[in-house]
Structure formats: structure tokens, C-alpha cells
Amino acid sequence: MSIISRSYPIIRKILFSIDAEKVHNLTLSILNKTYKYNFLRKSLHSSINLPSKIMGLDVKNPIGLAAGLDKNGECIDALGNLGFGFIEIGTVTPYAQKGNQKPRIFRLPKANAIINRLGFNNQGIDKILDNIQNNEWQKNNNLLGINIGKNFNTELKNAADDYTYCLKKAYPYADYIAINISSPNTKNLRDLQNKDYLENLLTKIKETHKKLADNYSKYVPIALKISPDLINEEIEDISKLLLKHRIDGVIATNTTISRKKIETLKNHDQSGGLSGAPLHELSLNVIRRLKSLIGQEITIIGTGGIISGQQAREKIEAGATAIQLYTGLIYKGPGIIKECFDMIKENINTD
């Protein structure tokens, strides 16, 4: 266990005394700076070896970093050094946008949770692709996913244009591409999960995907990131469309608009998506339902509410092939990566 992992409870007290968004940016900056120095880089390094497959791609281990933490792809190598098997950056939109008004991140420590209403704040696809040029992570045969979305002012009827624009741009650089239609922080975005909107979106994405695969002579898998707040009928509709359009993966799930179990806590009434421990059961239920509908046809990546190794194991047992962390990393520190590995290693299919 690294020095940072052992001392993280103390570090967290300091970090949690600072505004959440400021400390988020500060932490990424510090990670990047420490990574530049060999001694410090080694002190943070963790190597977890459990060869697995995700959407047909080889990974060193099935524990990934969820989108949202490194939105602009500025900290890939330093984050990968912590022991992740794959990293997902974004959400990225065609053009840069500031996101929603600050403050927009709120901690709920008693629930091991966070509410955010960031709103796809990012530097835009072109700048982000510049940021990820020459990263060591991919050169060392590690997976990088790019999570794409639409700009806030793009109407839903034109949403497919934003997604295909980003798909074309990201395709040469990504190992897989995630389609984010489930953030609660961009107005009406979740309506894209409606079967009529989704049919149109996936049709256009797959048409573009086929052309790109032919042009570049390589196949980059596509995953769809969905909401934890879907009802059974909606999950069934989405599953049918995933199978129909031969989508490679589904990421379950994004943040929730539910406030169940946190009603008495400070900041519970802030608008935005809730992540962390209260999300786990919702995400788990969606994974179980998905698995019953899609079987082995599509890779399920389980994310949402993993604050312990036990919760990671429950995601795998429910039907996920791999997991992703975000809020758990904030509350537990990098030691959670090894904790999750220890709990899921017996349950992972490495064929």
C-alpha cells in the first residue's frame, strides 16, 4: 500500500475543508506534478494484474475510472499510475462550455455521497484531443475511453449531430467510446433514453461507426451510459435497442435524482445528480435487470455507489464484467482500487 493510501484519512480531512470543486482541480494538478518526479511517481504507483476482457478488449484488470473525474484528459498518466485497468475521460462535447453556475458540487460525508450539477463543463473535443496526445497510458497498452455528449444548447432533435461529430473526432484516439445520454445536469438529456429518440440516435451512431471502422481499418467499441432511475419497461426498451443495433457495452449507471435515504442530511435538497453509497442499490437493480435481458451479448460495466470492495463484488455478481470508480476514490482514496481487486478477483472471468 502506498504512502498516500495509508495516510489518506488524514489527507481527506484537509481536502474536505476546501471547496469541493476547487479541491478537485487542485488534486488533479498535484497528481500531475508528482507524476513528473520519479521518486514521487513510484510512491503512488500500484500495479494490479488480473487480465480480463471488456467489449472484446484486453485489460490488465477490470477496475476502471469513471468519466467525470478527468473531464479534459489532463491527468491520464498520473491517474493510471494509481492502479486502474482502464480510464474513461469526459464527458466531452463538440464545443467548449462552462457548465452550470457555481457552486455545483456538494459533499454529504455522513452518506459517503456527493451531489453535482456540473453540466458537462469541458474544453471541447478538439482541445481535449490535444490534451491526450502522446499519453504514456495508451502507449503501454492500457485502455482509454472517451465519453461523449451534446452541448447544452443543442436541441434534442439535433442531438445525434453532436454525438456523431464527437464520434468522428474521437475515433482515431479512443480505445472505446461511451455515449452519455443519462446525466441529469443537462436539460432534457435523459429524454434521449426514450425509445423513439434512442432508436434515431443509435441508428445514426451505428451508421457513422461503420464508416469509421472501414476508413480506419479498426473497430472501436461503443458503450451506452444509462440512468439508475429507469423503470423496468424503459430498461426493456433500451435492452432491445442495444441488441438490435449491436452496441458493444452498457455502463450502468450514471448519477441519480433520487434523494432516498439522505432526506435529513445537509445539502440533500441541492439539485443535481447524486453519487456515492446511496446510488449503489439503484445501480445494482439496473445491472441485474439488464443482465436478465441481454445475457452474454453485451458487456456490462458496473458503476455507481462503489465505496467498498464488497460493493464492487456485488456489481460483478449482479452481472457486470468490470467496474468503474469515482466517488469511492474521493472518500476512500486510491487504496479502494486494491480493496476492490481483492474482493472481485475470484469472480472475474478471464477467458
Give a verbal description of the structure.
The chain is of the alpha/beta class and 351 residues long. It has a single domain, classed as TIM Barrel (Alpha-Beta Barrel). 40% of the residues lie in helices and 16% in strands. Strands 3-4-7-8-9-10-12-13 form an eight-stranded parallel beta barrel, surrounded by four helices. Strands 5-6-11 form a three-stranded antiparallel β-sheet. It is globular. The relative contact order is 0.14. The model has no long low-confidence stretch (mean pLDDT 96).
Structure keywords:
alpha/beta, TIM Barrel, 8-stranded parallel beta barrel, 3-stranded antiparallel sheet, 351 residues, 13 helices
Mean pLDDT: 96
- In which order are the strands of the major sheet placed? 3-4-7-8-9-10-12-13
Structural class: alpha/beta
**Low-pLDDT runs:** none
CATH superfamily membership: Aldolase class I
CATH class, named Alpha Beta
Named at the architecture level, the CATH assignment is Alpha-Beta Barrel
Give helix and strand order, one letter per element, not per position.
HHHEEEHEEEHHEHEHEHEEHEHEHH
Any chance you could write out the topology, listing elements then pairs?
Elements: H1 3-15, H2 20-35, H3 38-44, E1 52-54, E2 57-59, E3 63-65, H4 76-80, E4 86-92, E5 105-108, E6 113-116, H5 125-131, H6 136-139, E7 143-148, H7 159-170, E8 176-180, H8 195-216, E9 222-226, H9 232-244, E10 249-252, E11 273-276, H10 280-294, E12 299-303, H11 309-318, E13 322-325, H12 327-332, H13 335-344
Parallel strand pairs: 3-4, 3-13, 4-7, 7-8, 8-9, 9-10, 10-12, 12-13
Antiparallel strand pairs: 1-2, 5-6, 6-11
